[in-house]
Amino acid sequence: MHQVERAIFDIRRGLPIVLQSGETGQDESDYVLVQPLEGASDRQLRTLPSAAGDVPGLVLSCHRLASLGQSIDAEVARLPLTNVSCVDRRHLNAMAFGAGMGQGDDGSRPRIPKAHPADKADRAALALMRRALLIPAALTVRVSASQHDTVAELIADGTLLVVSADDAERHADSAASRLMRVSEALVPLTDAPQSHFILFREADGLREHIAVLIGSPETWLDAVPLRLHSACLTGDIFGSLRCDCGEQLRNAVADIHAMGGGVLLYLAQEGRGIGLANKLRAYALQDTGLDTVDADQLLGFGEDERCYRVAVDILEELSIRRVQLLTNNPLKVDALRGAGIEVTERQAVYGRLTDQNHRYLSTKADRGGHWLDDVFNG
């Protein structure tokens, strides 16, 4: 898996990698060049087809594909770029980002090729983009027989990194479940003076999560008060008025302290799991009139990209199997119960309803099923 971790860092730098699909059994057809769209230079986009010697394709999620007016019975789709002019930043960005992002000055959009179901390498490519917290869009092109030796030389001299498509998909599914307990310290908080922070790092080093142990574990209730809080830099740190995250965080700490202590898991899942850069992109789209869900899906993400497997693993590390969950989100209850954690009861935790966060909270309630009746009726 170390090769996959190295590939993710190359991808985050905008560098191409090679996926070895292993689907055909023929060496000359086994390599697929992958270029992340985010961070790619104009030169990289122009030279990719000739470097591989075949027709490139734009790999997108089904969510982004839907915004282009197409649907497909698959999570990932590939749009073949048979027209060379389509391998152009303006056209590619229009197809991958849309909504004014990367379109021409005249607002024109390119003709959209008909999408096809993605193969193993395409699916692995998009899984790597998501893991790298980039826009889920990539160019892929199968290396032709005529270019196979050239690409093999670039792999041999370290210019290109090759990884197995199978390994890439497995890594995306399992990285969050391989945690390392890294460091810990007492960190007294305003609302919980007796607090102990424990930092956990995921295996590829990309994300770090914190377990905040409030009070003394020896005196906790049998069903431990628990809050799963996804990081929100804008709300938690800067007090953004677009959400109620910062107030929820501080209220949860105070509530857990008042209940005799428990645990707050601060999870590195910014923007419902899409990362800070994409969250800010979604904010810009929301300013054009879209709600949170539609903005995320226009960028190619699902309604909620978060995974709570890491929370379950941390709870197991802390030997916690029964909890009272502080949440308004039914998905968190279902995720814990589905993983064998007993949720004995649920307690709401709210922030203030304001003019600035009203639409955000309404979307949570109406489209995410969050239990917020008391907020709107209070």
Protein described:
With 378 residues, this protein is an alpha/beta fold. It folds into two domains: 2-174, DHBP synthase, CATH 3.90.870; 178-269 and 306-377, Rossmann fold. Helix content is 38%, strand content 21%. It contains 16 helices and 14 strands. The protein has helices spanning 2-12, 42-52, 62-67, 89-96, 120-131, 148-156, 165-174, 233-237, 245-258, 270-273, 276-286, 292-298, 309-317, 330-338, 358-368, 373-377, and strands at 17-20, 31-36, 57-61, 76-80, 116-117, 137-142, 162-164, 179-186, 195-202, 208-214, 224-230, 262-267, 322-326, 342-347. A seven-stranded mixed sheet has the order 5-4-3-6-2-1-7, with helices on both faces. A hairpin with a 5-residue loop joins β9 and β10 (208-214). α5 (120-131) packs parallel to α7 (165-174) and α11 (276-286) crosses α12. The chain is globular, with a radius of gyration of 23 Å.
- Give the class-level CATH name of the largest domain: Alpha Beta
Low-confidence spans: 24-28, 100-106
The helix-and-strand class reads alpha/beta
Main sheet specs = 7 strands, mixed
SSE run: HEEHEHEHEHEHEHEEEEHHEHHHHEHEHH
Brief rundown of the structure:
This protein has helices at 2-12, 42-52, 62-67, 89-96, 120-131, 148-156, 165-174, 233-237, 245-258, 270-273, 276-286, 292-298, 309-317, 330-338, 358-368, 373-377, and strands spanning 17-20, 31-36, 57-61, 76-80, 116-117, 137-142, 162-164, 179-186, 195-202, 208-214, 224-230, 262-267, 322-326, 342-347. It is an alpha/beta fold and 378 residues long. Mean pLDDT is 89; it is low at 24-28 and 100-106.
